[in-house]
Amino acid sequence: MTSTTQAPGRFAEYFVVCGLDISSGLEPDQLSGDHLQYQPLQRSYKSKVLAHFPESNEWSPFNKDAVGMLCLPKGLSFRTQKDSREPVFHSFIITREDGSRTYGAAVTFYEEVKNKQICLAMQSLHAMHQAELCNNPTKTITMTRITETDYWDNPQANLRPGHTKLSDYNLNNDVLYASKCICVIMQQPFIQPARKFLLQIYEAVASNENPPLPLESYIYNILYEVPVPPVGRSMKFTSVKLPIVCQRPGSSELPLCDYSFRELFSLLSVHNVVQLFTCALLENQILLLCTDYQRLMLVAECLSVLLFPFTWQHVYVPILPASMLHFLDAPVPFIMGLHSSGKEDRSQLCLPNEASLCFVDVDNHVVETPEDLPEFPYKSEFILEISQVLDRFNISTDSDKDLGFHEPESNSNSIQGSSYDLYGLQNNLNAINAAMQQDESFDTESPSSGSEVSSRRDSQTSLTIPSKSEFLRTNEFVSKVAAIAKRTGVIKSISDFDDVAKKTEAEKETKFNKGDVDELTFNSAIREMFCYRFVQMFRNYESFVIQPNQDMDAWLNAREQMQNFDKAAFLSDQPDAAIPFLSAFIETQMFTTQIDNKIVANWEEMDPNLKIFESRIDGYKTRNTDPTGSVKTPNYEHATSVNDYGKLTLEGTMYSSLYPRHKSKAQWRRKDRQHQHAEHLQLKRDQREVYLADKHMRKWLKYIQEARIKSVRTPQLLDMSPAVMAQTNWKFVEGLLKECRVKTKRMLVEKMGQEAVELGHGEVKLTGVEENTLIASLCDLLERIWSHGLQTKQGKSALWSHLLAYQDMRVRKDSSPDPNFLVPIKASTSLPLDWLRGAFKFKLFQSFVKDLSPDSPLLGHRRRGSGLPDPVLPPVPTDLTHDIRKIQSMKDVKTDVGYARAWIRLALERKLLSKHLKELLSDYELCKSRYKRYAFLRSDDEKEQFLFYLLSLNAVDYFCFTNSFNTTTMTYKVLLFVSRKFNSATTANPWISVAGEHGDTGIIQLPKNAVELTFEHRNLGVLSTVRIGHDNSGISPKWMIDYILVRNELTGHTFKFSCGRWLGKGVDDGSLERLLVGELIPTNMDTEDIMTSCRTPPCQRSPVTIRKSMGTPQKTTIPQIQEMLTDAVNNIVKYFYKPEKERGSLTLLLCGERGLVQCLDQVFQYGFKSTRLFRNNFFIWDFIEKVSTYFESVDNDDEGKRGPQDERHARRMFCHFVKKINNTSNNIGKDGKFQLLMCLGVRDHLLTLWIPQIASTPVTYSMYEDNSLLKDRSSVVFLVQIIGALREFNVTLEASLIKGLDL
Q: How large is the average pLDDT for residues 478-499?
């Protein structure tokens, strides 16, 4: 059904009749599955399109297979006179590969089978079935697993409460009925008018009264003479019994939707609708399950239109035929509707992928959402607002009541139990088609005219039903009542009864029209409320669109490599509560397409949906602009125009189409469709629809169509040939591989930032998108890959079940150990350490090391001057089963999906994801047993590329596991490396405290002279600081620490904390404890390299220590110090401009290497006279204490009291901090005290007030040389200006820095 030319605006394009083909007989419907275990009346049989008119349209060729399948989705069914045979209406949709849609409306009913061969065939099938049951009496109908053949089971499951079960068929006693369907195909979703038209056609056929005109006239009228209503106008056209009204929204209104939101909320409740809406926005897979086809369409279409102005860009099949059930394992986002028999249990539905699936059980009012679904912004307020509108329209949301499909009252009595067929109409249509092809003419006396239809109908029954007027005149009871009415003056004649009846019908019609208007009003109100949420969320989105600077051709050619939206800046402008949802939503295809449409509007006509949305945003800004011209941005604002939502639907002139007339064959082919449309409408130029046909639009549409065809938007219906199936699955595989390439590249660009820009991968503005969103997207992709082509589902996560299966296989193999695995090794044997690591497991390796002699090269050299050997840091196992066991031991994960996502995050953080998956997929037999041949995981070339893309993620560091599982208990290993030059064994009692982003351990006592410690603690996050100290007890308490290594045994991250200072009174600066700042060691560094790559110089050291350990230092110049300080301040400024989750450690920027405190230490060290003028060695803290004493004297002086208020406040705070630090932190050395004071000055924004006053004190002039930085006025001004850049930020210090100080 690919459109080749521009379609004219007609109401309907095809009229279709589907049902039993007598010439083919009873053919089992192979596409609906094998139903031989059921009774013949319960089985599905093959149906065909019996007739359709016209034969074809050049703008929309007729897809016979798709229409036939969707008219009767479960095939042909049979009933007897003892069974329910109520007609059922349902609509459907056909989505083409280019994304365009065609709508259908169908009425299915039962028609008596008069063909003796069909009846005999049914009788034979029953006899065979009974014989089989007699031969195997124990045979029962079982459904232990819902498969492709079991989804569509016996039709009796669709019976409503109170209906009888299907019975056996007896040729002599029973009347056989077969299902039949009449349908109209439309370009626009005028569902309710089409429903009314079909029901009136059906009633005319079922009725014994002749219609005013032959039925062909009404069908011709709706196909050729009834146009699509003009934009913003209503139209009335004539049908068999009553006129039908349809309305088309105006250009400023939301697009057409002819489904009832009243029923949607009654079925699913407000909360469930919002949850389902959220899943659709985030492009999760959505599966609808219901016993009613029309409800499947209603929920899917209502959900689709609520996305406005965005459009669903993926697979959309609201009614999934039986032949397409294998597409449930499609590894792409989809909205699919699955018909249910009403008997299946939720656990019986074998869905391949449930990790990112939103499952909707419409009948039971249940919506199951994926785990970790972000909450829609202001969800509770939104639900409350919707509930208030429902109350205003008197709509109950009680989901517990049974909500069946109710036909209009006018249909129920006249349809039930009638005897009828549509062969006459079918033959008429076929005759017309044949006559048109042969260019014959016919008139109203032809055999296919309405008179013959009437005579044929009259011959089917001997019962003559009198007309209403005749009944009133002849009925005795009515005559008596009429006589009484005449005497009382109520009526003048008996004919007044007929007038009263007509008046009642007219009033009923008026009420019915009012009901339509009320429904349109409510639908519009609900849709406007949902649209208003997008208006408020994206009111300023245009400011973040990155407009191209090239022409359209160049932009289209480079489209996939370009980013068109500044996501980082947009998210930074949003409230914190909305960021989890918005960060995921702006990564979706529907949002990307919307931004593309915005950019394309630079070259051609704006997309109609986007134009409406832009007008809503303009209205919002107008209403919320204050007198100063700024737009107010309330957190949540109720939609303000609910009372006006329905008014637009009543505006515009009612247009009446041509009245149907008797048609000749020549008239059916007389005029071209488009010309006739223009003749009847007689519209003004400004009222006609404008089709965009300029060259830019054609280019854009061609680009979009090609992109959609490359991806599988909707699988081809019915064509189940191996070639088509292979092509479709190949598209799935290609799509998954492309998605993997795009996602991994995006993750690298986001993490690498400026480095990625230098490599030509994008713009620096892209670095702000939250890492967690991209990781969650990768988890979803891996789940979809592992669900594609799955043979048998085991658990909700296909990936985790595969991992467990691999683990079980490894356990079975390891249960039979290799006799050559353990080989005795002499203690003096010199073997490579790497060989031992591969040959022995961790514990075996430890025990082996203990047995080695002290001189063994395997133990490593003993450090010179130290009585202790180097501590051993064995590698963390990197095999797949080790990580699986670690994830299984996590107590805060409860589901298979949670385990799978935790494993992915752990493997990614350890840079083992590609390695682990390669090991998992290397077991060919396991993959072959679990996956079908077409599965992605069995496509060798694509699988290799997929693993290569994942391998590229090892180029950056992720903490996606550490930052996500805050409550998980972690194991940490601490190694202490004492000084190489001194025998640093201490007699004191040492202790250590480890701190990270999520907390600290508190004080942990260390055994004396121990160099290793292993402890368990709740996840500390990314480690930041270690505080190490002792109690200074014993004969020789002093302790020299080179550095400390702390490793997370689960993630393998190792942090190095450099020290290079003494601990003890009377040595160095007299510190009994030191705060060390951590540095992450690259994961690709070997364990031996880690232990031999110590950089002993500390972060801050006094001049005396520098001379003792390093000799005369290279003199640093003032410009170099200024440059270092500028870099340090800029790094802090950048820290605060990053999203919160991407900021890293502020402690490292303050106290780490080349941090702000180190730069300030250089400032105060430059030109300090401590070693030349004083016999005793002075530290900067000694200078600070002298300055504090001077400030106290100034404040007590009368002149000082008269100074500026801010200067006096700064002096008082300086003295207060110095005194508090000295009194509280006795164990901290002088350099540690200086570090703490500088951090407090940064926190309280006091440095810019302290430095000028410190520089002007006499203490500075006496303790610093003339060329010092503090004596240079211009340098002091520079210091104040550069540090002043931090005043606008709220600096929060880690608890480990201030160590409990009450400041």
A: 59
Identify whether the C-beta of residue 1233 lies closer than 8 Å to the C-beta of residue 1164. Answer: no
Gap between the Cα atoms of 978 and 1038, Å rounded? 12
The larger pLDDT score, comparing residue 243 to residue 654, is at 243
Q: Rounded to whole angstroms, what are the CA distances from 1262 to 21, 184, 441, 1015, 1254?
A: 112, 100, 121, 51, 12
Structure tokens at 215: 């039925």
Residue 183 clears pLDDT 90, i.e. is over it: yes
Cα angle for residues 1164, 1166, 1172 (degrees, 5° grid)? 105
Token look-up 């195997």 returns 136
**H/E segment holding residue 1018:** strand 1012-1018
The three-state DSSP-derived secondary structure of 162-183 is CCCCCCCCCCCCCCEEEEEEEE
- Residue 632: CB partners within 8 Å, gap ≥ 6? 624, 625, 626
- DSSP-assigned states of every residue in 1165-1214: HTTB-TTTT-SS---HHHHHHHHHHHHHHHHHSHHHHTS-HHHHHHHHHH
Per-residue tokens: 549: 């600077």
Q: Which helix (H) or strand (E) holds 597?
A: helix 589-600
Element (H, E) at 624: none
Return the SS3 of 130: helix
Inter-residue contact 869 to 860 (CB < 8 Å): yes
Query: What pLDDT digit, counting tens, does each position of 794-837 carry?
Result: 778 889 989 999 999 888 887 765 555 444 444 433 444 443 34
Count of residues for the chain? 1303
pLDDT in tens, 1177-1219: 678 888 888 989 988 888 777 666 667 888 888 888 899 888 8
> Tokens standing for 876?
């963390």
Look at residues 9, 221, 231, 249 and name the one whose alpha carbon lies nearest to residue 657: 221
* Helix H or strand E encompassing 1296: helix 1295-1298
Helix-helix angle 896-909:880-888, to 10 degrees: 130
Here the tokens at position 119 are 């009846």
Are 931 and 806 within 8 A, CB to CB? no
Residue 337 near residue 300 (C-beta atoms within 8 A):
yes
Q: What is the pLDDT of residues 921-978, one digit of tens each?
A: 988 888 888 888 888 888 888 889 999 989 988 888 888 888 888 888 999 999 988 8
**54 upstream amide cis, omega within 30 of 0:** yes
Residue 1081 contacts residue 940 (beta carbons within 8 Å)? no
- Cα distance between residue 1078 and residue 131, in whole Å: 82
The angle, 0 to 180 degrees and rounded to 10, between the axes of the packed helices 1230-1243 and 1247-1255 is 120
Q: Select from 808, 970, 777 the least CA-distant residue to 884.
A: 808
Reduced to 3 states (helix: H, G, I; strand: E, B; else coil), residue 961 is coil
Taking each continuous run of H as one helix and of E as one strand, the counts in the chain are 45, 23
CA dihedral 313, 315, 316, 317 (to 10 degrees): 170
Rg (CA), the chain: 41
CA distances from 494 to 472, 477, 491, 951 (A): 7, 12, 7, 91
Q: Which residues of 659-694 are buried (b: 16+ CB within 10 A; e: fewer)?
A: ebeebebeebeeeebeebbeeebebeeeeeeeeeee
> Cβ distance 1154 to 1100 under 8 Å?
no
Residues ≥6 apart with Cβ < 8 Å to 496: none
Yes or no: say if 279 and 358 are a contact pair by the CB < 8 Å rule: yes
pLDDT at residue 639, rounded to an integer: 73
Burial of 347 per CB tally in 10 Å (0-12, 13-18, 19+): exposed
* Nearest 10 degrees: Cα torsion 626, 632, 638, 643: 30
